[in-house]
Amino acid sequence: MAEHILFLTGKLARKQLDQILDQIHSDKFTYTVHTLGISVAALMTADMIQRRLPDTFGADRVILPGRCLGNIEKLSAQFNVPFERGPKELKDLPAYFGKTHQKANLDKYTLRIFAEITDAPQLAINEIVERASHYASEGADIIDVGCLPDTPFPHLEEAIRTLKDEGFTVSIDSLDDDDLVRGGKAGADYMLSLDENSLWIAEEVETTPILIPSTHGDLDSLDRAAESLSRTGREFLLDPILDPIHFGFVDSVTRYSEVRKRHPDTEMLMGIGNLTELTHADTVGMNALLIGMCSELDINNILATQVSEHACKAIRETDRARRIMFAAKRANTLPKHIDNGLMALHECSPFPYSEQEISDLAKDIRDPSFRIQTSQEGIHTYNRDGLHCAKDPFDLFPGLKVEQDGGHAFYLGVQLSRAQISWQLGKRFVQDEPLSWGCAVETVEENMESYKEAGSTLKKKPKND
Asked: What is the mean pLDDT of residues 132-160?
């Protein structure tokens, strides 16, 4: 028997909702549309529904406008029917009913993030702990204490012991053998990096080493180091080293593939800073691609840095990327339509309404409040006094007639500025809501809203597979 769904809406959206439902409904569900006695569906609240809804018309579930505020769980209990919020835009209703992929659960991942504090010798202990806590809130699993060439680090041991006492997993990162020994004896869990000529350090400490070629690009030396440690039963990770663009980047990528072929069951690490830090391009796309490569090659560890200001969200971006790639790999699908957190500048569907559809909507408006929408043609603003369209908000000002209303003019200025940015970039604009920049500007709580737990910390991590 087909499911029966009750859709609640406002007067202005009723016609468009009927048209969309007529297109998407099938033998899977029947429906009733009920107008709740208000003009604008977005103004609907749970309390209003509780007062005004006479019954649920035999529905198996009730779908509310996406912007409906209030406790809908209370409505479900009162009417003994599940209530749920639909999409914020009516044009997204087909996707809501499965015409596109469903939103994935991003609570699981396998890749671990080593987040390097590159200037640790120049920081006080409390500053190191503060930096580590920030990196952990962004998604880091292991705090990498970086050493600097020819820079004294007298508090190295204290830094590592303090981080360990605070519950962090720690690695020591240095080109100096003495630093690695000191860090290992202080309790570091990992050390970057050893080669076949410095394997003696592994005999001095119990720290798990990351192995690199003794000469850059020499995979045979990496093989020999791996074989030597394997005979002792020690755990280790392999890192062939990722090079910057125009300085061996493509060859270095092929080295990771070759090492995986030679060592199919060995843990590997990829340091991604040589690409993200040394390329002046937005890092979110680079991190998506690099984590996708790691996913294909079963590389479960990356070293991320946030030194350059343009790379200041690298940890957060790699955290989101590892979750998306894990979900895609688990579902044996492309990393599309899983989550929009890595789409900072553009949208899959930036303009849900055409110029003609906006014009049709404007004809039904009978109040003075301005509506603002975008289409491929530009920015549209309309109320009962007419519809105006332009590509530059300054061209709209003469028709708004708000010269004597400072507050209204300010409000429209903010909204039209957002609309212009959205239109120029190809982003989705929704009036009265801030622009979405994906994980580039989200707080940890927003970034993790679809996860089982908010954020990934070293003391309380999401369950991994």
From this structure: 96
Does residue 26 have a cis bond before it (omega within 30 degrees)? no
How far lies 167's CA from each of 26, 110, 133, in Å? Answer: 54, 20, 10
Return all residues near 196 (Cβ < 8 A) that are at least 6 apart. 214, 221, 222, 224, 225, 228
Give the CA dihedral 417, 446, 83, 79, nearest 10 degrees: -110
Cα(421)–Cα(30) distance, rounded to whole angstroms?
40
- pLDDT category of residue 445 using cuts at 50, 70 and 90: very low
Q: Cα–Cα distance between 23 and 17 in angstroms, integer?
A: 10
One-letter amino acid for residue 190 of the chain: Y
* Section 24-32 average pLDDT: 80
Q: Is it the case that residue 401 has pLDDT exceeding 80?
A: yes
- Matching residue, tokens 């409904």: 25
How many residues are listed for the chain in this entry? 465
Q: Which residue has the tokens 């009417």?
A: 79
Token pair in block for residue 413: 């200025």
Q: Are 423 and 378 in contact (CB under 8 A)?
A: yes
- DSSP class of residue 95 equals I
Domains defined along the chain, listed by start? 3-99 (3.40.50), 112-330 (3.20.20.20), 355-425 (no CATH)
Per-residue buried b or exposed e for 166-192, using 16+ beta carbons within 10 Å of the residue's own CB: bebbbbbbbeeeebbbbbbebbbbbbb
With a cut of 70, say whether residue 206 has pLDDT above it: yes
- The 3-state DSSP composition of the chain as helix, strand, coil percent (nearest 5) reads 40, 15, 45
pLDDT, the chain, mean: 89
Write out the two tokens for 301: 């560890």
Q: How far is CA 201 from CA 66, 197, 232, 337, in A?
A: 59, 10, 13, 47
Give the gyration radius of the chain's Cα atoms: 28
The pTM of this model reads 0.80
